[in-house]
Design brief:
The protein is an alpha+beta fold. The protein is built from 8 helices and 7 strands, in the order ββαββαβαααββααα.
Length: about 200
């Protein structure tokens, strides 16, 4: 039996496992003991989805059966939130400078900041989705007295307005949204992730 975790081969020996499901159950127990969660499984090179999990779990183990697990740990998520905290704090400063950049003909600087904001928000959404596997992480984060999910729910309409302003090349609206709406939210989010996560 061959097992890899996040691409790294690990030593493994069979105890009483007879089926693929037995191995999956045993591996899940190990993850639970180590504050980790399985986010992807492949058996014999085939990605396992919820739709055919039960069928695959019934397969009999052979010496050639291979497992590839993608795992995320609680500690890794906490570290990523701290990194995002720093990133959001830096981005808040850059958002605050967008009006001046636009007025001074530095549109490229403003566009780079906006692209970086989009990337940071994408990374944050991905990390938050993974953190939902550890509800205690999300429960611990409070932004301006609001639960993280409630705070985040305010972002889509704001970002939609920002996107419309960009499409219309409305530099006044872009500057106002960046400085007075996005910047303070990024500052608050950065502080919350630094202190709570």
């Amino acid at each position: 039996m061959n097992i890899t975790v996040n691409g790294q081969k690990i030593d493994s020996t069979l105890e009483n496992e007879k089926t693929v499901g037995d191995v999956l159950t045993a591996f899940q127990a190990i993850c639970d003991e180590n504050a980790a969660a399985v986010i992807g499984i492949a058996v014999d090179g085939e990605r396992i989805t919820a739709a055919h999990f039960d069928t695959v779990a019934q397969r009999t183990l052979t010496p050639e059966t291979s497992f590839a697990f993608d795992v995320i740990t609680k500690q890794a998520l906490l570290t990523t939130f701290k990194e995002l905290s720093e990133r959001f704090t830096l981005l808040a400063g850059r958002m605050e400078q967008i009006p001046a950049a636009l007025q001074n003909g530095h549109g490229n600087d403003a566009r780079e900041s906006i692209a970086e904001l989009a990337d940071a928000i994408d990374s944050f959404c991905h990390t938050t989705a993974l953190a939902s596997l550890f509800p205690e992480i999300l429960d611990a984060v409070s932004v301006e007295g609001k639960k993280l999910a409630d705070f985040i729910s305010e972002f889509p309409p704001l970002l939609a307005d920002f996107e419309q302003a960009l499409a219309a090349q409305d530099t006044v609206q872009i500057g106002d949204l960046a400085e007075y709406e996005i910047c303070p939210r990024l500052t608050a989010l950065g502080a919350a992730l630094r202190n709570d996560a």
